[in-house]
Amino acid sequence: MAIDDYWYKNAVIxxxxxxxxxxxNGDGIGDFEGLSRRLDYLAGIGVTCVWLxxxxxxxxxxxxxxxxxxxxVTPRFGTSGDFVEFMNHAQALGMRVVVDLVANHTSDQHPWxxxxxxxxxxxxxxxxxxxxxxxxxxxxxxxxxxxxxTTWTRDRAAGQYYFHRFYEFQPDLNTHNPAYRDELYKIxxxxxxxxxxxxxxxxxxxxxxxxxxxxxxxxxxxxxQEMRRFLQWRCRDAILLAEANVPPGESMEYFGDxxxxxxxxxxxxxxxxxxxxxxxxxxxxLRRALRETLDNIPRDAQWVQFLRxxxxxxxxxxxxxxxxxxxxxxxxxRSMQIYNRGIRRRLAPMLRNDRRRxxxxxxxLFALPGTPMLQYGDEIGMGEDxxxxxxxxxxxxxQWTDEPNAGFSLAKKTVLxxxxxxxxxxxxxxxNAQRRDPASFLNWTxxxxxxxxxxxxxxxxxxxxxxxxxxxxxxxxxxFRNAAxxxxxxxxxxxxxxxxxxxxxxxxxxxxxxxEEHSRADNRGWHEIALDGYGYRWYRLGSADETLTRATx
Length: 553
Ligand code: NOJ
Ligand code: CA
What we know:
This protein is of the alpha/beta class. Helix content is 29%, strand content 17%. A hairpin with a 3-residue loop joins strand 12 and strand 13. The structure holds 1-deoxynojirimycin (NOJ) and calcium ion.
């Protein structure tokens, strides 16, 4: 029974921006009415939770992460009524909705900042972070170098410098101001009351930091506890999901020793090593990151595993040599790299549209311990447009059909141009064509998701990384009570035979959950599993039926 209460442990999360998903009223910008009409598609592939990127009022200079009003919906996407209709349809389908909460900074156009800058006695002055002189650290700590040059910019109206961790139009909030905290809870309460199931919290390491000129930037995690307490008081099964790209050793600070802070974190350490493994066939750093992240999480919390997101593929925490190796394979051209640390590309083109490698990557995503998150469009293998600015390269409209504008919009001009090249263009890559083809990547993915949802061991169980004779193959064992699974993923393009010995009677027979490739141990209990280049397997120990009836969940 408890399994249903921990819905987030077995969710399939799908991340999208309303602007680029489906335009219903024909103005070229996606909207809630359009998205509502696509929820059945999402339910059909097995998505159980939609993560909406910011859909609030915003000058939109950072994809909506520059908020100018936290209450309500930007008119670009529709009305609050459209949002409630969307929520109603999601609920009817049993789908959860998580929304972005940008609590670290506002837009410089937010009335709070406008008031703060124009009057030193404004009640909002102390909601932001000011300094009379330009602090000596002004050229450090930028998140978007070299596009962003400083973290302290002078505001003429205020006659002072203000702090901004991100772009200069995103002034940081002073999250230790009690009046701001009250407002933050009001914002959370507002969206919870409208039926959402939680928040994807933006920029959490910066949110909890003490800010100010000459202030030591120590992190004060009490804020997370307070937010959690408020959240759970208002809504018992809502969750907080953190964007915090930190080393595994720091994650417990975010989850809380007692699991009393955030329930979920995006697993950046594993993400970076997945791409390192895909680029080099060297799986060792991924093994280590998996072990370390599994060791640093409380019982009720959960990692969110992902391949690509709406941001750059951030490789900032690899060593320089490791990063260079990934760049050499996936971003050989300078224009593919960004912010001195990342790659602004989609998954399919990085993997050269090679179906074997795309299946390997997706199979891994759904086999990893944690909750999988998909980036919209990756389920059909969409491409990128490098002529667009910075991270916009991977944010082009969803490709629904081979009609004009990919069936995304009837407008002449769309919010971002559609991809129209011979390989990844919408005439070639679109939902409609793949829907009809049983062998398409879309239908393969939907089948995989269906299989995954039945694997209680993966989302609920204990996961171990096994050592075998094949270093390029990642072998995971997940167990829950009497049930156990083994998954294998071969990161090299050459075939490997993995030798494996498993304890217990069940370990003698491995039932393939995705194909008819079962394995029986020899007399001495050894399995010999032959994998093709980039091959993968999902096995359940014993027999599938027996496991299902014997497990007592
Ligand atoms: C993280 C978001 O994912 C990114 O898109 C945004 O630019 C920054 N936070 C600033 O809000
Ligand atoms: Ca529209």
